[in-house]
Amino acid sequence: MTPNGDFASDQAPERLGAEPDDLQRMRAFEAERQTIVGELHDDLLPYLFAAAGSLASLQRQHPELESKLVQPAQWIDQAREIARRIMSGAALPSDFSSGPLVAAKEFLESVVLDSNDAKLSVQWMNLDASAEFDWQETQTIAVYRIVCEAVRNVVRHAGATELVVSWQTNANGWTVSIQDNGVGLDWQTVSKSSHGITLMRERASAAGLRLQIGAGQTEGTEVTVGQVTMASQPE
Fold it and tell me: N or C end of the chain: smaller count of CB under 10 Å?
């Protein structure tokens, strides 16, 4: 929501799907992310595993140092876990046969929501219907990334207890909504140029979709991304 209380949104795109150049750009971006995954796996993780092994060996050989080595060992374990999560998040799923929402649910429940200390209650609505939709490749990637980013933001920053991710269709197109009951966004302090919001905007634009971020119907924040027909776009 903007400082004056209006709903914050990007302008609806003038096209319904992504152009070939946009598809190539999106594929190149995802390939770059996959390169990062490979570098983490091949270049970083071996050093972390070696460091963990060396500390364990020192603890066995020098019991008098064990108390001093506990904290460094925990830091290395945390670094390995962070690397694992980055790798899981950077790589696209190998199976999008059931659509981006089902894939996002599987990733988030296994990587993000499983360690959620606040015990956030998440509802996924109309997943079966979304799985039957004929998704374009650019839409699939954009929706998957936007949903994952939005849910991660809720877990990290919203202080929410409830989250609803839903899929809806009507005569004007389709919409994916991510709505929480958290503290909401303060646009006085949260810049529209923040990294996560900027990435969501860029992904939606590249796929020819409309992105909206603002206040939910009652409280919290709602992120919506969708495709609209030309007839439903504002003049």
Answer: C
Q: Which of 189, 114, 97, 188 is nearest to 151 (CA)?
A: 114
- Is 226 in a helix, a strand, or coil? strand
Distance of CA 18 to CAs 25, 73, 98, 148, Å? 10, 48, 21, 21
Q: Over the chain, what is the mean pLDDT?
A: 76
Residue 114, C-beta contacts closer than 8 angstroms, at least 6 positions apart: none
> What single-letter amino acid sits at 165?
V
More confident residue, 97 or 88: 97
Question: Could you give the CA distance from residue 198 to residue 212 in angstroms, rounded to a whole number?
Answer: 12
Residue 10 has pLDDT above 60, yes or no: no
DSSP one-letter code for 133 = S
Q: Could you tell me which residues are beta bridge partners of residue 173?
A: 170, 228
107-117 pLDDT, tens digit each: 888 777 766 55
Residues forming a β-bridge with 9: 212
pLDDT above 90: percentage of residues in the chain:
17
Greatest Cα pair distance in the chain: 75
**Alpha-carbon span 177 to 125, nearest angstrom:** 10
Instruction: Provide the residue type at 177 as one letter.
Output: S
Distance between terminal CA atoms of the chain? 22
Write out the two tokens for 178.
């991510």
- Distance (Å, rounded) from C-alpha 235 to C-alpha 228? 13
3-state secondary structure at position 228: strand
Q: Which residues does 196 contact at the CB level (< 8 Å), separation at least 6?
A: 149, 152, 153
Closest of 207, 199, 208 to residue 13, by C-alpha: 208
